[in-house]
Amino acid sequence: MSLWSLVSHMPPEPFSGLFGEFPRDLRSLLGDWLENQPWEFITGADSFCTGAAGALLSAMVEKLRGLAGGNGQQCQALQHISNLENTYRRDPLRLVAIVKGILEGERAALLKRDRHLPLSFHRRQEELKFGLDLQRLQHRVGEIQALQERWKQMGDGTRACRQPNLQDPQLKTDGKLQGNDLPALILEAVKELEGAKLQVLNRLHIWKRQQQLAGNGAVFEENLAPLQKRCENLVDIYFQLQQQVVAVGGELGSDLLSR
User: Fold this and answer.
1) What is the mean pLDDT of each run of 10 residues along the chain (259 residues)?
2) Can you give the residue ranges of the STAT transcription factor protein interaction domain (predicted)?
3) CA 146 vs CA 48, 62, 185, 247: distances in Å
């Protein structure tokens, strides 16, 4: 059960002031689609988050274009498309912040009324977070590969001479990493990979617990394919990182290499 299927039948009073820049009729047009995107997990302003926000804006526009063919919705959808592109194309992170506020307000109103959220909501949020974390890892791998290629192109020399300019748009990374080097970027990727691994292990623990409860008659989803896909994706990223660590092992030093 989606949040919108519950919220849309509530009186308008709990949502007063919630739909300022983002009209309620636009929220209604997007329906379940809006809450099935990882808005709340885009938490920074780095190149990855900006790109993810831009992708969500493009996906929203495409969703509305699909609705524009429906009877009675064409003019409404086209107007919203124009407004979205004119308002947020240069600052998609602003759209993310606005949608976050709307979804948080809807959840708060539902919690106040029902004291809980549907179990399906929590499962979907967990899936959205892992999906975005995986995209972030893939983005990080791309950054490392680009930086590594740059080091190779600069040839031999002292490390100070080989230090790349991280202000280069092609190599620019998170603010917290600017001014550091390839080893720091690799360590950050390893840290993020560990976080994603813990999510998979936690989901596996939940699956095992549900399997135990099934003996008492609880509903149990036996399909392990989604978990297997998660593991395969992480293993793929793991091997890419391993190859990159081997390639620049001399630059890392023994201490960092062991980490």
Assistant:
1) 88 88 92 96 95 98 84 79 95 97 94 90 93 95 87 60 48 44 85 95 90 82 87 94 82 75
2) 2-116
3) 15, 31, 11, 13
- As a whole number of Å, the end-to-end CA separation of the chain is 44
The span from the CA of 180 to the CA of 164, in Å, is 9
Contact 80, 24 (CB under 8 A): no
Q: Do residues 171 and 130 make contact, with C-beta atoms less than 8 angstroms apart? A: no
The three-state secondary structure class of 188 is helix
Give the pLDDT confidence score for residue 252 in this predicted structure: 72
Task: Give me the DSSP letters along 129-179.
Answer: HHHHHHHHHHHHHHHHHHHHHHHHHH-SS-HHHH---TTSTTT---GGGTT
- Amino acid identity at 235: V
Other CB atoms within a 10 A radius of the CB of residue 92 amount to: 22
R_g of the chain, CA atoms, integer Å: 22
CA 184 – CA 187 distance, rounded (Å) = 5
